[in-house]
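Can you give me the bound-state structure? Components:
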Amino acid sequence: MKNWRSLLPYVSRVPVVRVAMALGVGTTVIGGYAGLGYLGGTVPFAEAMNLPAALAVMPDPLSILTARSPGERGKGAMFNIKANKPPKPRQYAGVPPRGPRERVLGNVRERNPGPVVPAGALPLQPAGFVPDLPVPLTPDALGPLPPGGTTGFGPPGVFPTGPVGTPGVPGVPGPNPTPTPTPIIPAPAVPEPATWAMMSLGFALTGLAVRRRKRTRAPAA
Amino acid sequence: MIRQRLGAVALTLAAVTIAVPVAATTTATTIGTYGMRFRYPAGREGALPMTGGQPLRVRSLLNIRRPMQFGDYVWSDLGVPATGAIRIRIDLPRQTVSVFRDGHEIGTAVILYGTDHKPTPTGTFPILMRARQHTSTLYDAEMPYMLRLTNDGVAVHASAVRRGSATHGCIGVPLAFARLLFDQVARGDLVTIVGA
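Here's the bound-state model for the whole set.
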């Protein structure tokens, strides 16, 4: 008995084995046809299987959908689209916190101090206002001056408030300058009636309070 | 004898070589296998309730025996006629979508839907517009494979389907599922959103 195939000539002579082999071949052929038909989109042997299918209890499609569902979302579980914040670490009574907790300025940033320059290497600069301009401040660099002044800088011209057209006032050219006095409206010396009323009411209330305190203290003393 | 054993070992090795990569490359988002389909016999089709209309007659359903997770989808149209009317049924309380062709379910996925403040409307809507690359002007967000349902902006589109997320009223489906669905539907196909 070298090989199992060597048994086949002897076994095939037995009628029972022949019938079994024929059944196997038939089952393979019919099952293959059914499987191919199933993949092809038809229900194989539908008529032959109609009776057991008609007798069987078909499940409700909704129950099949329910079985595959990940579950229902809770009522009101999601009122906005933001994810829930992680819960705060719980503080137990009597247990001090682990360390100082900063709520603001968690990370302190420091400005880079830059390269260190020795004191002697600093150039001498005149104190005072140094214009931050690449070119020296000359009248040519400033362009044309505005009309009506020798220099564009300095305090604003003093506008005459007296007689119009006084000659010789610096900064006011022309024979007849138009005076534009600054509208300064001083606060009126006499308060408004409402202010008066509020002040007198305050005084009255103060006096009343003083008198009341005196009156209540008198019987006690 | 030794040669036979060597042959058996070689056969086993070959089977493992084929089976292991197939199992490894099967994505977690596709569950179920081809042909796993629950068929209703002719004349005894199932009926799925639809919003404000007659129920949908179901010839077969994908047979998924376990709850799907967020981001999962199944798509299989093996054994289903290639042509037929497309109907999409979106089940809000079950958080799933089912795509039917000629009464056979060919795809299903877990969805995201609107929050309680911006709920998803229910009813039956025709697909008004399809856009493979769409950017929402309202939310300035990418909405690939968009299928517009209403004129005020409710659509079916791809999004990151995760537990605990929701939309502003749209239906969010996984990206790969959205691609398959986009290629399947045409403008005018009916989408039914079923509420609680």
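A couple of observations. The radius of gyration of chain A is 54 Å. Residues 162-169 of chain A have pLDDT under 50 and may be disordered.
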